[in-house]
């Protein structure tokens, strides 16, 4: 049975122990691992490993011992309660080793949790789980978590009393960080508020948030929009040393100035405009970008975007001009415009 995102989240939160198994696949191994962990914990409870009700097995081991999976599914433990077999890193090449054991499954056997990377829709393993009436297949994609998923993570950590603006900050962090880093941030926030019953504020979130994931790039974009031209050279040199290419820099600059333009164009003013942005602007940059939008104004930002798009098109053309030098010149011109604003 193929599960859509909402259906998969319900299944992970409250799995049925009398089903054959669940295939969890996706390109992001961290996201897949977190969903697998959630599923097994909710299926077996917290003491499954100590009670030997969970069997872990690398899928590659089935090449040398094809019967190992069937034996693990049928095995009976000493402790009562549901059992599961976790088969890790499965591939379509191993489908012929996996599906025969699943065909022998019967009620009372262990629930089989299979994790895999990106599987083609036509692949044997994915098709088997999607078409089986007693099994589930859930694709985990790189979409940011929904508000409901974020709230569930907060509730699990004991964080129920959260200010509305702090919640917006957490949503922005959830989009900026990978799932593992976001979970660590929530755990850190939970410890930060331990024995503190007051509401979680934006200041609390900022105190626990990791440093910006692209700090140097953020510094460069802010320096450009604020007219601090002398700082651009050293920042560009650091980005180039980190492997950031001119086209990626042009895309980031376009995104930053489009955000400023949207804020400056908002009929209720830049402050309201920044808060309406989707995805949300990172809370550490929000106030600075409001000031930048006010400084530039809508019309100057339109001219700035024309300049950035022109540079981007030149980068993507057959021009022989040095690409990083072209971007540096564009950013310096923008910074000089900001100085006159």
Write a concise synopsis of the structure shown:
Keywords: DNA replication, DNA-directed DNA polymerase, Nucleotidyltransferase, Transferase. With 341 residues, the protein is α/β, with parallel strands linked by helices.
> How many domain units?
3
CATH top level class name of the largest domain: Alpha Beta
Provide the CATH superfamily of the largest domain. P-loop containing nucleotide triphosphate hydrolases
β-strand percent reads 5-15%
What are the low-pLDDT stretches, counting only 5+ consecutive residues below 50?
none
Structural class: alpha/beta
Q: What's the helix-strand series? A: EHEHEHEHEHEHHHHHHHHHH
What distance separates the N and C termini?
59 Å
Q: How can the largest sheet be summarized? A: 6 strands, parallel
Count of helical regions: 15
Oligomer: single chain
Shape: elongated
Number of strands: 6
CATH topology heading of the largest domain = Rossmann fold
Radius of gyration: 25 Å
Protein name: DNA polymerase III subunit delta
Keywords: DNA replication, DNA-directed DNA polymerase, Nucleotidyltransferase, Transferase
InterPro entries: DNA_polIII_delta
Q: Would you mind describing this structure in some detail?
A:
The chain is of the alpha/beta class. The chain has 3 domains: 2-139, P-loop containing nucleotide triphosphate hydrolases (Rossmann fold); 147-208, no CATH class; 215-340, Zinc Finger, Delta Prime, domain 3 (Up-down Bundle), CATH 1.20.272.10. It is built from 15 helices and 6 strands. It has a 6-stranded parallel beta sheet, with helices on both faces. Helix 3 links the parallel strand 3 (54-58) and strand 4 (84-90). Helix 12 crosses helix 14. The chain is elongated and about 75 Å long. The model has no long low-confidence stretch (mean pLDDT 88).
């Amino acid at each position: 049975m193929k599960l859509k995102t909402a259906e998969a989240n319900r299944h992970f939160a409250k799995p049925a122990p009398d089903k054959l198994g669940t295939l969890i696949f996706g390109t992001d191994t961290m996201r897949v691992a977190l969903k697998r962990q959630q599923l097994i914990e909710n299926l077996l409870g917290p003491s499954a490993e100590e009670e030997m009700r969970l069997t872990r097995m690398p899928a590659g081991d089935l090449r040398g011992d094809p019967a190992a999976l069937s034996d693990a599914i049928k095995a009976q433990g000493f402790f009562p309660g549901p059992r599961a077999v976790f088969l890790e890193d499965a591939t379509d090449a191993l489908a012929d080793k996996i599906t025969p054991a699943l065909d022998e499954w019967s009620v009372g056997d262990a629930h089989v949790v299979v994790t895999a990377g990106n599987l083609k829709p036509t692949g044997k393993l994915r098709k088997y789980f999607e078409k089986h009436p007693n099994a589930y297949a859930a694709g985990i994609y790189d979409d940011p978590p929904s508000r409901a998923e974020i709230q569930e993570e907060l509730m699990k950590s004991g964080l129920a009393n959260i200010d509305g603006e702090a919640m917006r900050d957490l949503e922005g962090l959830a989009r900026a960080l990978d799932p593992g880093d976001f979970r660590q941030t929530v755990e850190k926030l939970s410890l930060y508020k331990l024995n503190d019953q007051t509401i979680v504020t934006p200041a609390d979130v900022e105190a626990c948030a990791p440093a910006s994931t692209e700090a140097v790039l953020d510094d460069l974009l802010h320096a450009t929009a604020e007219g601090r031209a002398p700082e651009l050279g050293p920042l560009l040199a650091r980005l180039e040393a980190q492997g950031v290419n001119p086209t990626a820099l042009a895309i980031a600059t376009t995104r930053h100035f489009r955000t400023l333009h949207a804020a400056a164009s908002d009929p209720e003013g830049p402050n309201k405009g920044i808060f309406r942005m989707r995805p949300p602007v990172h809370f550490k940059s929000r106030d600075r970008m409001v000031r930048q939008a006010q400084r530039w104004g809508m019309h100057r930002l339109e001219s700035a975007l024309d300049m950035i798009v022109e540079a981007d098109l030149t980068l993507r053309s057959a021009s022989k001009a040095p690409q990083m030098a072209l971007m540096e010149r564009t950013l310096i011109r923008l910074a000089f415009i900001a100085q006159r604003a």
